[in-house]
């Protein structure tokens, strides 16, 4: 992705959050230059990849495949002794025409919440013992405390205020219902680690390669410099 595309996407997410009267922590506003001065007291943000994030799945077509997000809080699967927090929370921003690729998580169970805007369509499948997609078995879903059983490949529609629980091993993809407008999505989950806990089917990447055509508006969560030594 071009840095200009990333900057534009982050500003759109920032505006969507403000328009729905949510607020981000102060570190959301740190500039790239300010990050160079931030000491070890901010290591939790670095180590747990809090903050701004973008994915285009390495496909180079963000308007079709990808979305922008902001991780507000997170623990750390690999550093449990240092970071005790067993949960995470995010905002995601998905526009009409964008598609979040089919995947499951080995570790993470999550609630995906429509915080406002259009409607989300979440397609669900079980996984087989060999981790392939079960295209025949019915899927048990939990939607705002209601248990439903739906056929494999059903797109569950979440209108604003609704949520679905995605269990470990449950394949899911999502997109916006055409004609309903962009969506601000909330995610509340167990600890998130996008480096090791995504099983994409078919395989895909997670973080974009960046073409630096303009200065960054904000650093992404995988771009923070190390704390300066005093």
TrEMBL record:
Its cofactor is Mn(2+). One of its GO terms (molecular function) is D-lyxose ketol-isomerase activity. It catalyses: D-lyxose = D-xylulose. Its EC number is 5.3.1.15. It is an enzyme of class 5 (isomerase). It comes from the Bacteria. Keywords: Carbohydrate metabolism, Isomerase, Manganese, Metal-binding, Sugar transport, Transport. Belongs to the D-lyxose ketol-isomerase family. This is D-lyxose ketol-isomerase. The lineage of its organism: Bacteria, Bacillati, Bacillota, Clostridia, Lachnospirales.
């Amino acid at each position: 992705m071009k840095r200009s595309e990333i900057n534009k996407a982050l500003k759109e997410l920032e505006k969507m959050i403000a328009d729905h009267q949510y607020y981000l922590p102060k570190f959301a506003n740190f500039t790239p230059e300010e990050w160079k001065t931030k000491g070890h007291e901010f290591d939790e943000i670095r180590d747990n990849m809090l903050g701004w994030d973008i994915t285009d799945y390495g496909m180079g077509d963000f308007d079709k495949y990808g979305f922008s997000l902001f991780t507000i809080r997170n623990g750390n699967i690999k550093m449990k002794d240092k970071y005790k927090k067993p949960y995470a929370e995010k905002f995601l921003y998905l526009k009409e025409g964008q598609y979040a690729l089919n995947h499951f998580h080995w570790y993470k169970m999550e609630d995906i919440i429509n915080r406002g805007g259009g409607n989300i369509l979440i397609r669900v499948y079980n996984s087989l013992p060999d981790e392939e997609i079960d295209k025949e078995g019915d899927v048990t879903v939990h939607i705002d405390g209601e248990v439903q059983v739906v056929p494999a490949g059903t797109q569950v529609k979440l209108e604003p205020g609704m949520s679905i629980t995605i269990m470990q091993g449950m394949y899911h993809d999502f997109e916006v219902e055409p004609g309903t407008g962009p969506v601000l999505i909330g995610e509340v989950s167990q600890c998130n680690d996008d480096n090791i806990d995504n099983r994409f089917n078919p395989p895909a990447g997670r973080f974009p390669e960046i073409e630096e055509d303009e200065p960054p508006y904000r650093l992404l969560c995988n771009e923070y410099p190390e704390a300066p030594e005093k």
